[in-house]
Amino acid sequence: MEAGPLRLDLFHRDAALDGRWLALHPREFALLWRLAETPDATVSQRALLQDVWRLPFEPGTNRVAVHVARLRRKLETVGLAAMIATDGAGYRLDSAAPLRNEPSRRFQTNEQRESAGMASQVEEQRVAVEIGEDGVAHVRLNRADKMNALDPAMFEAIIAAGESLMERKDVRVVVLSGEGRSFCAGLDTSSFARAPDPDEPKLTDRTHGDSNKFQQVATVWRKLPMPVIAAVHGVCFGGGMQIASGADIRVVAPDARMAIMEMKWGLVPDMGGYQLWRGLVRDDVLRELVYTNREFSGEEAQVLGLATHVTDDPLGKAKEIAATIAQRNPDAVRAAKRLHNRMHDETGEDMLMAESVEQAGVIRQPNQIEAVMAGMAKRAPNFTDAA
Question: What spans are recorded as compositionally biased (Basic and acidic residues) (predicted)?
Fold first, then answer.
């Protein structure tokens, strides 16, 4: 669908201008899509709640005005903030809204526009996602000059990268790594000096299902239906530690520098760590790491329970494990992840039933039969995409 100069892509759930993706949140995309269905016509807030939020009333969190403000900020980066107009009790998409820099753009050649778009993508691509033919997705944190530290743009980019994989049936496993000298140095301390945005949701607002934005950057990897393997090297502090903890498996360099760092800044870990560390770290050990924010190595991380493997080439080992998982029945792998995600919350009785339900869903299905046939024939399996 077209929305003025924007192309709305329903598959990617994002909007693009001259080939540049805006990295919209799914609800921002749904909001823009709904307005684009009736361009230049006012859509009431009540209609947006019914069509986008699927609610008959304004929720206490995730309010319409908050998402409109966020959408406008992203449109402003491409000179299109005026496209979303406020009109009485509703909003409309102004398809004739001019680009902020339209006079200079009007005289660009196609080659100049393509070159400028590519340069912008390289400059602003905080997170790169590559999907191989083997079904392995490689997500790379790409702010190497700042050791992949987390500023507002980095938070948005990591969440967008994770959520872009949520519905991908062809992706069987994800490798998560950091470019440059480190995996992720944690919060960019310059963010402390940033004045709070008046439209920014409160920490207690659940903007991403069960999580706020800062939690979603770590929990999105656990929520993905396929396994995630983090390859950790260099520095992995604070928020970086919690992002790595969102992975199913962590492969760590022996000399990696790791810490649950928040207490150094007078804060508590609040990016999903307490949920993600259940079952990984003994309670008293975790308390010591949190209370003291002491640094530990990759080798010690394995002893503590925060590293699965320790190797001099964590990315190579992560890719090796990913290649193995990609050769397993993708339906069974996803079912197993769902079971793992539930095992710390459910009763024994409920887990026994959950096992049976998941098994009933995969047994005698085409991919399970192919796993048996390939094993008997001693050949590589040829699975279809996950159901």
Answer: 196-209
* Structural element, H or E, at residue 208: none
Is 303 in the same domain as 198?
yes
Domain of 28 in residue numbering reads as 2-93
pLDDT in tens, 338-353: 999 999 988 999 999 9
Report the distance separating Cα 271 and Cα 244, nearest Å. 11
Whole-model pTM over 0.85: no
Reported as a single tens digit per residue, the pLDDT across 139-181 is 999 999 999 999 988 999 999 999 999 989 999 999 999 999 9
d(CA 331, CA 129): 23
Pairing of strands 257-259, 296-297: antiparallel
For residues 101 and 99, what is the distance between their CA atoms, to the nearest angstrom? 5
Contact yes or no for 65/11 (Cβ under 8 A): no
> DSSP letter at 53?
I
Tell me, yes or no, whether 299 and 369 share the same domain. no
Tokens of 377: 């024939």
Is residue 325 within 8 Å of residue 227, measured between CB atoms? yes
